Amino acid sequence: MRERQLSERPVAQGITQLEIDQRVFDLYDEYCHGRIDRREFLSRAASIAVLGGSGLLMAQALLPRYAQAQTISFTDQRIKANYVSYPSPGGNSGTMRGYLVQPAGPGPFPVVLVVHENRGLNPYIEDVARRAAVEGFLALAPDGLFPVGGYPGNDDDGRTLQASLDQPKLRTDFLNSARFLSAHKLSTGKLGVTGFCYGGGVVNYLAAALGPDMHAGAPYYGVAADTQSVAKIKAPLLCHLAENDARVNGTYPAFESALKAAGVSYAVHFYPGTQHGFHNNSTPRYNEAAAKLSWERTIAHFRQHLV
User: Fold this and answer.
1) pTM value?
2) Are residues 48 and 128 in the same domain?
3) CA distances from 283 to 22, 66, 75, 235, 278 (A)
């Protein structure tokens, strides 16, 4: 099924998504994943010759603007949000903190863990947790950076902090977060997990690590789980991938073969004309049509398997 292409949504300096050179998008992907720093990203973008435009302005337009990302206010009457702390044995500090969003009403509720990208619990991820809550799910968005002071308020420092953590212990922190949420007094015990970029990879990891204790997963452009662990997966997976994302997409052929061999229920959707990060509405990589369709599919997936 072919989905609508990128809309010409104006961004910084009047640049539209369709005007941004793919080479600048590719550099931004390197920057987002910590392979180059902000200075090198802007410098290399500035050196790109683009007809009738500026690579530097395109690069600056791609930097996140989180004020644009809020779709559900934290004061929305349909939800109740607060920060909670909970034990995380074997993690980076033994304790974790997360953003817990409860739907209006007494509960209990099916639950959804929302896993952030490689920079900590930023405002976009908090908004995604609120979006899940207004759909009737008790949502928890853990901050993997809590052991080092929490999300620092900007993505550059957040990315550096997350890279500095013990990575196996960070995964343990997310595993403990899933268990905390599933056992919450307002939980029905039915657990779904979604995540974005790094968090998408965590969804696939948790599906194997939790086995029958996870009931549905919806990873967004996250690297595939180790094929040796796939036989442990019991949760049906709904995987969302961008068309222009060779690094992540290259991990899926072997993953799909292993899923088929293990008899795991799964679906993979590719969204034409999209970049890695297309669901994140704080940057011009956002594709409104693909973000809307993928989220509708995610909610339907969770309702089918959790409610």
Assistant:
1) 0.84
2) no
3) 15, 8, 24, 31, 9
